[in-house]
Every structure is written in C-alpha cells, then in structure tokens.
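Schema walkthrough. Field components (list of strings):
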Amino acid sequence: MRIATSAGRLVLVEGDHILDVESASGSRFAADPALVFARWNEFGDWAASVDVSGHPDAAPLGGAELGAPSPRPRQVIGVGLNYADHAAESGLPIPEHPVVFTKFASSVSGPSTEVRLPGDTVDWEAELVVVIGTGGRHIPIESARESIAGYTVGQDLSERTVQWQGQPAQFSMGKSFEGFAPTGPVIVTLDEFADPDKLAISTTIVSPDGTETVVQQGSTDQLIFAVDDLVSRLSDIIELLPGDIIFTGTPPGVGAGMDPKRFLVAGEMLVTSIEGIGTITQRFVD
Ligand code: ZN
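Field assembly_structure (string):
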C-alpha cells in the first residue's frame, strides 16, 4: 500500500492514480492524513479491499499537489552516523549506541519545495525515513515492523556552522531551519519491497545550468543500526507515537566530507531518491 497527502487530504496511491480516502471510505477514515496512523491496521485492511485504478473517483497522480505524507509528526527523531563509511568521512568513530537528535517538528515539509538558505554551509543528507504506525514503548526487535506504517524519502538538511556551534554541539538547531526536513512523496508499506532492508539511496545536485552531479549513492543494507533495531532501542526510552518519523542516517558523500568542502548555493536543486519509494526535489534560494 502507498499513501500520500494531496492538497492536505489523505489519498491512496496506485500506479499513476490517487484516490481520496475520506470519500472512498464513506467517511470511515478522515481526510486528515495525521489521523490515520493510530488506526493503521484497520486502515490497511480497508485499503486492501479498494481497487484504486479502477475506482470511478480515481484522479491522476500527475496533477496532485503533494505534501508531507505524515504532515504533523509529534516527534521527529534523527539518527547520526548510522553508516560506517559516513562516520569515517566525518572523522568520527562508529557509535556503540545510536546517536540521536531531533529535527524540530516545524521543519517538516513536503516532497517538492523551495528552501531558503539560512547560511553558506548548508549540506545534504539523503535518508530513509521510517513512519511510525501504532508505535508504543519497549517494542521488541522481533515485532518492530508491526509498529511501523512504512517508509518514505527524506533529506536531513543541515546548516553545518550552526550544527557544530558551541560545546556540546547544536545538532537539533542546525537541522531544524524552515523546510529542513522535506519528506515524501509517498509512504510505502514494507510488504511492497522485495527486501525492505536493502534499498538503493542517492542524492543528485542539479546546478542552475542543468548539470547533474551524483553526490551520494548508497544502500540501506549498510545501516549500522538497522530499522528494527533502531525502533526497538528508541522505544525503550521514547514512546513512539502514531505518525512520528525517524530519519535513519545518511550514507557517505555529504558536502562537509568532501575536500574541499562543498555546500549548497542558491539556484541549485537537490534530487533525493530511494528505490521503490520515489524522489523528492528541493530548490534552494537566498
Ligand atoms: Zn542525518
């Protein structure tokens, strides 16, 4: 199953079609996408009975105005240094426990956005984003998947100067500027993937003249703390709430790890893709 937020309303996605959930379900499920996660299993059962493409009310996905698929997460959790080769390029040791910070919820945005550069050291981090369904506390690793709604694509945009300001550093501040947590375009349930633990992930920079440079190209099978493990460990401390999102870390190839360092400038576009989910696109302005 795939869901998205279209013009603020929850929709099912199938191929090139979307279907409004509130109207197709006779108001059994609300239009507000934020309300569906607490009823995830019930929703999945209903959605499985719906033929989206063949439905008389199906609309083209192409014309949809997509927003963040989990539009108002109460908690946005970030995990740092979760790929061994990214830890190495950052000059930091491989962590023994997940390195956790928050991206404040007001930084969450949708899949196709314009982002104002708040400084001259804004960097990219392509990330698999886990969306929590029913959630809970003390979730065993064996049943972690049952608490997850699905996966989406995210960019953990980071202003490196602010991130590393002071002692200790200010990860949560450097990563929470307006529009710094773009997500989308859809949430995909784990049963849709041949192997949900092995997904190709990439970032491409498109310069104003159209030149494309692939800067990140990795696979989620390189995660130090895999998704099930992360959900279980996080839930031992934090109650994971329906609709919460977890940025699971980035593969190597960020600008701060380059020699010389390279950061985003106005006019550039960032294209972030994950196999089996889709692509999000951010354009940067001064
Ligand atoms: Zn990150």
